[in-house]
Amino acid sequence: MGLNMRIRKEGAEGDMCFGNSEGDFWRDQREGVGQLVKNRLNLWLGEWFLDTQEGTPWQLNVLGKGRQTLYEPALRARVLPTPGVRAITAFQADTSQIRDISVNLTINTAYGVTPLAVVLSGQNNGG
Q: Please, which contacts does 41-48 make with residues 24 or more away whose CB atoms are closer than 8 Å?
């Protein structure tokens, strides 16, 4: 397909997987693209010291009252430029919790369609 993606797998707790050689990597697979999307969504704007302009604008556009018209475009803007993502074919978010947002996405990747369910918490970064 031309991308030649190799992404280290993460375990259930979010730690990188080691000890299984090539079995510790997603190689040109939709699950790897899904993992990249989750990682991009979980990075807070300004959190990465090498590029403080990178990240999801949680405090500006996502969490809090009165942000219903802002969170979907902000989250889509984080997902769509992810390597391997071609389109978001379904987007649904539950903002009924005060400090959390649950997002269900279906993304069309270079390797097929994959559903994602992500709970993004404002408690993770003092939000």
A: 41/75, 41/78, 41/79, 41/103, 41/118, 41/120, 42/118, 42/120, 42/124, 44/124, 44/125, 44/127, 47/125
Q: What are the domain boundaries of the chain?
A: 6-122
Could you say which DSSP state residue 124 is in?
G
For residue 68, give every residue at least 6 positions away whose Cβ sits within 8 Å of its Cβ, in sequence order, or none.
95
Among the listed residues 82, 72, 74, the one whose alpha carbon sits nearest the alpha carbon of residue 114: 82
Nearest CA to 85 out of 119, 45, 38, 48 is that of 38
Q: Tell me the sheet residues that pair with 121.
A: 100
**CATH no. of 6-122:** 3.10.450.40
- pLDDT tens digits along 78-119: 999 999 999 999 999 888 776 788 899 999 999 999 999 988
DSSP label of 59: I
Place of tokens 């009252």: 65
pTM: 0.85
